[in-house]
Design goal:
seven-stranded mixed β-sheet; binds pyridoxal-5'-phosphate; transferase; Aspartate Aminotransferase, domain 1; DegT/StrS_aminotransferase; Aspartate Aminotransferase, domain 2; single chain; globular
């Protein structure tokens, strides 16, 4: 997955354009910037690549989620449905706005179970936020039908699945809004950065204003701009945006290499009795940044994970006990440990996460092991890795 593996002369050239003028900010200083508008250039290219009408670059994937929610009018007391398997940014971005995260089970896609989503809807529900974890997607068709029926927003977190598609549409472009991260370990990186895409002019204008203190961005004098509403500072710098331009040019090659490496490993693991694979919803194509598979039981999955590291197979993950990605590790959320008082809406409405039944999620996550797919591996190295994985798994099963 990591775009940092291909960081090179192209990224350095883009950054040097910015360093030469010294205009590190994306707005203003027209005369000094030698015609370089890196953030704007990246936004235009990214919107086109994601087949969306608008793109707003921001400072991170986490801020992209917050900006997207704010742009669509989600705030205090609104409930946002999110999965138990994700990254902490999901509930962080929601709670930042005083909104309430509602955690629901995943299924064998390792993303939101549409039935669990429908069961969690209340009069306060405003948004469904599927997270396309580890390169593959939620059942967007089923989720969109639910959102249309109940008049809810569909906000895709595509931070880990850039380049994947559903019904031939780029992931992130299917819902009302889509979010991406360009942090240092993502498929393409800016160092730090994120993006919101949408086909709604209204959300795009709101996002543009919200991420820059509510500035209306009309005219050439920042000091004289009006502020239609309150905002915040989630801006990206020109330096980070410049890196992203070069990385975006490499996306297709990165995806092709991931697919080759994934396929080699998958074909070998398909010959191992007892191994099954994560379900990709019909109409979807993953971005091949991870290969996720199930073992017959939780006990065996734990042992396989250990055996993989004993066989020197690096970069394999057992998310069930990983602090970052599964509710088991989020003691701070379950006990609402915040630095300062939370909004009363959050305190009153949030589930008792210590006692909610997530046994359906446990049943899938407990059996899941994922292998990262790197792009720097040679074909011979991938073949070796696949055989070592097979030996490690067979030593347990
Ligand atoms: C990385 C990631 C984010 C947040 O991105 P940052 O740029 O690190 O803030 C959000 N959601 C998911 C699923 C991610 O993997």
């Amino acid at each position: 997955m990591p775009g940092f593996e291909v960081f090179g002369a192209e990224e350095r050239k883009q950054v040097n354009d910015v360093l030469q003028s010294g205009v590190l900010m994306r707005y203003g200083f027209d005369g000094m910037r030698n015609g370089h508008w890196k953030a704007k250039q990246f936004e235009t290219a990214f919107a086109q690549k994601m087949q969306s009408q608008h793109c707003q670059l921001v400072s991170s994937g986490t801020s992209a989620l917050t900006v997207a929610l704010a742009a669509a009018g989600v705030g205090a007391g609104d409930e946002v449905i999110m999965p138990t398997f994700t990254f902490v940014a999901s509930f962080e971005s929601i709670m930042m706005l005083g909104a309430v995260p509602v955690l629901v089970d995943i299924d064998d896609t390792l993303t939101l179970d549409p039935k669990a989503v429908e069961a969690a809807i209340t009069p306060n529900t405003k948004c469904v936020m599927p997270v396309h974890m580890c390169g593959s997607m939620a059942d967007l068709k089923a989720l969109k039908a639910i959102c249309d029926k109940h008049n809810l927003l569909l906000l895709e977190d595509a931070c880990q699945a850039i380049g994947g598609t559903f019904e031939r549409k780029p992931l992130g472009s299917y819902g009302d809004l889509g979010c991406f991260s360009f942090d240092f370990v993502k498929t393409i990186t800016c160092g730090e950065g994120g993006a919101v895409i949408t086909n709604s002019k209204k959300y795009a204008v709101n996002a543009d204003q919200y991420q820059d203190h509510g500035h209306d961005h009309v005219g050439n004098d920042r000091g004289a701009e009006t502020h239609p509403h309150l905002g915040y500072n989630f801006r990206i710098s020109e330096l980070n945006a410049a890196v992203g331009i070069a990385q975006l040019d490499k996306l297709d090659r990165i995806l092709a290499t991931q697919k080759r490496n994934y396929t080699i490993i998958r074909e070998v693991l398909e010959t191992v009795k007892g191994v099954t694979f994560r379900r990709v919803p019909e109409g979807g194509e993953e971005n091949y940044s991870f290969l996720s598979f199930f073992l017959p039981s939780q006990e065996e999955a734990k042992k396989v994970h250990k055996a993989l590291s004993e066989h020197n197979v690096e970069a394999c993950f057992y998310w069930y006990t990983n602090n970052w990605h599964y509710i088991n590790g989020w003691e701070h959320l379950r006990n609402l440990r915040s630095l300062a008082p939370l909004s009363s809406e959050i305190k009153n409405q949030i589930q008792d996460l210590n006692h909610t039944d997530f046994s359906k999620s446990d049943a899938w996550m407990g059996r899941t092991v994922s292998s990262l797919i790197k792009i720097g591996w040679t074909e011979a190295e991938v073949k070796q890795r696949a055989e070592a994985m097979k030996r490690a798994i067979q030593s347990v099963l």
